[in-house]
TrEMBL record, chains A, B:
Pfam annotation, one family: MoCF_biosynth
Species, as recorded: Hymenobacter busanensis
Gene3D superfamilies: CinA-like, MoaB/Mog-like domain
Stored NCBIfam families: cinA_nterm (TIGR00200), PncC_domain (TIGR00199), PRK00549.1 (NF001813)
Protein name, entry field: CinA-like protein
HAMAP family tied to this protein: CinA_B
Family: Belongs to the CinA family.
InterPro entries: CinA (IPR050101), CinA-like_C (IPR036653), CinA_C (IPR008136), CinA_KH (IPR041424), Competence-induced_CinA (IPR008135), MoaB/Mog-like_dom_sf (IPR036425), MoaB/Mog_dom (IPR001453)
CDD domains: cinA
Organism superkingdom: Bacteria
Length: 418, 418
């Protein structure tokens, strides 16, 4: 078997360079390749121009032994990857009957007429191995050329993912000998990168040379990833695991989960363990906390529902906030947000409620309560806890940050329950 | 002045290659550069290894006259861009007093103790021009080296954006002569790329050589972007605009807006023009429709609130769904979703309501109602309209798709109102 290859991901499309589309494919591919121990050496995004695609292919093969290409396989005129690849490998397109049958079946299933442009998608370079695409009309293509593997896939994320999982990853594992690599991910919330790094510095200094800690900040916290690469010694996974207990002790109050778990999913586990239900009463976050909770598969086991109370009448009628409270203290106040959380508990009959009220901006601020002023509250059968947050990085980030803080308030208070 | 440069965006960080972080910076930068008429030639994401950064810098300067670098400027140990750049340009780091004062002020503002690692961030390569970062601790750096401009910025999106807007874009416009470029964006919803392409083909064929149509599909629709590049003739914008009327006629039923406008924002405009209010009653979408509506600044002018009714008791008590209906037809049924929409109108006193109920998966399906079965309803004072949707590409995409369809149902029915 061949030694482990470096991989280059090449994404093709003017829409990436113009910034009309965010490339989420590369991150997913990087994760999946990392899981089987393959290193991504570079990600290159290039235009739809044939000469620039060819220049990028020439460079990629000097850096990597596997080049994974996405994009430029759609049915429309600005997609030309297939033609460029055929020319690059000195071959021509020919009808690939099994791919045509796949395309026909897709149109039959959705009961739509098949167009000539879709039929054209079953024409493939003669020297490639076709990789089935059971969820779309553009098959993947696997080329081997002078020791380098080139794979071309459509840019539509769920089609690319299916071809990667079904075909590309298994084929790469057959083709190459892959050395061990181990990762541990520790998810923290509520502290910034600098603070954590200062706390962790001594521990980090004593790590062996084949282990490396990466700080992956997100809005409201930091994900820590410890990676151990092959050093020729056995038990890599155990040696990685042995480094973790002191780290856990240092970051304890901020550590909400290990592995690829969202904060909402971690809270879901806590709720299920305690047999508790939750609901949200949201003003400024506008349903985003409910969305984060219900994004988690199986959340119907503990999430009952929410009231999004943007207008004050909704706060009064659906959540039982006192009109006097709104008049005296305003909608963005400790008193209101406490009543929202407590009112939701009563109205929906949930064990735990979390509530938000604030000024997400850009309008709506005042001298006393500028944009970026937020109140959040947590309520259960025994206590109601409220917190003020000052944070302004624009409406969308404000909503996201307050949502994370509200979920963290639940995480911090749940353990006292039951 | 110098002729218009090609730009290369270089993002640095193992976290991008491992796929732990999605690169949203490049898309934003591409959009802003496109707006001032600069073309992004390539986006390259490389590792934290010094030799690979240097190799990428060497290549970038052969392709582009401006290299914009993000990442690797944080305070922690895995960030080393600054040191590599100092060596690459044959200089060394020195304390930059104005940057130190900026860093000190940031810590004073947040009332946090400043750490030594943060002080280190004010050490910059001697030959660079420091670009102020008013929202973070890592300044930007502008280098000019043998005719190529290199700019290094932190990878934290809101810091990078601030430095780009305040410093980099104005400096590039001063430095280079930029030819005209014009874009028109037409936003469609409710049809796929192949179908639209077939409808548009004849119109596309008659476009002059300096104009190009790009199809930018998203889940539930396609954004069309027509770009006109400089052909030496005057009135580029007018000539671009003159191409649009026949295109509008072809895609009329699917065209929801022109320019960078979300579907939710377009509906917001329709509601405001008609002086109408809206609310949502959501089961399977779990608050995501409310979130999309409230993501729009100023949405409090027409959005009153929502009930997220995951549990049947919430559907009955908060929305007035008849228990008999749930027993006879189930929660995922035309009858239930109609009552949810109508009930929300009554309960919240909104003019327009939209409701969803379905099986987002992966669990919860049955033979009669498999995962991917969704009902959506629209209700106003005059009518209630319901639609069934069959769609299954996994929980998260299902939620997103149904949300788009529900908003489109509002768009299609609103014009009949008032």
């Amino acid at each position: 078997m061949l030694p482990p290859p470096d991989v280059e991901i090449m994404t093709i499309g003017d829409e990436l360079l113009y910034g009309q589309v965010v490339d989420t494919n590369s991150a997913w591919m990087g994760q999946e390749l990392g899981r089987i121990g393959l290193r991504v050496r570079q990600i290159s995004s290039v235009s739809d121009r044939a000469d620039e695609i060819v220049a990028a292919l020439d460079l990629a093969r000097t850096r990597a032994q596997v080049v994974l290409i996405t994009g430029g396989l759609g049915p429309t005129k600005d997609d030309l990857t297939k033609h460029v690849l055929a020319r690059y490998f000195g071959t021509e397109l020919a009808l690939h009957e099994p791919s045509l049958r796949d395309v026909e079946q897709i149109f039959a299933r959705f009961n739509r007429p098949m167009l000539e442009v879709n039929r054209q998608q079953a024409f493939l370079p003669k020297t490639c191995t076709a990789l089935r695409n059971p969820v779309g009309t553009a098959p993947g293509m696997w080329f081997e050329d002078q020791g380098t593997v080139f794979v071309s896939m459509p840019g539509v994320p769920f089609e690319m993912k299916r071809i990667m999982t079904d075909s590309v990853l298994p084929r790469l594992q057959q083709h190459f000998h892959v050395p061990p690599i181990e990762h541990a991910v520790l998810q923290t919330v509520g502290q910034g990168e600098s603070f954590l790094a200062a706390q962790i510095a001594d521990w980090e200094d004593q790590l062996p040379p084949n282990m490396k800690l990466a700080y992956l900040p997100y809005l409201g916290g930091v994900r820590l990833r410890l990676t151990a690469t092959d050093d020729g010694q056995p038990n890599l996974r155990q040696r990685l695991a042995a480094q973790l207990p002191p780290l856990r002790a240092i970051i304890g109050p901020y550590l909400y989960a290990e592995g690829e778990v969202s904060l909402a999913a971690a809270i879901g586990r806590l709720l299920q363990e305690r047999n508790l239900t939750i609901g949200t009463a949201e003003s400024c976050t506008g349903g985003y906390i409910a969305h984060k909770i219900t994004e988690v598969a199986g959340s119907s086991a503990y999430f009952l529902g929410s009231v999004v109370a943007y207008h004050n009448d909704v706060k009064v009628r659906q959540l039982g906030v006192q009109p006097d409270t709104l008049t005296q203290h305003g909608a963005v106040s400790e008193e209101t947000v406490r009543q929202m959380a407590e009112g939701l508990r009563t109205q929906l009959g949930v064990d735990v409620a979390v509530a938000t009220s604030g000024i997400a901006g850009p309008g709506g601020g005042s001298e006393a309560k500028p944009v970026g002023t937020f109140w959040i509250a947590y309520a259960d059968a025994h206590q109601t806890v409220a917190r003020i947050i000052s944070f302004d990085r624009g409406r969308q980030l404000n909503i996201e940050y307050v949502t994370t803080q509200a979920l963290n308030l639940v995480r911090q208070n749940l353990p006292a329950l039951g």
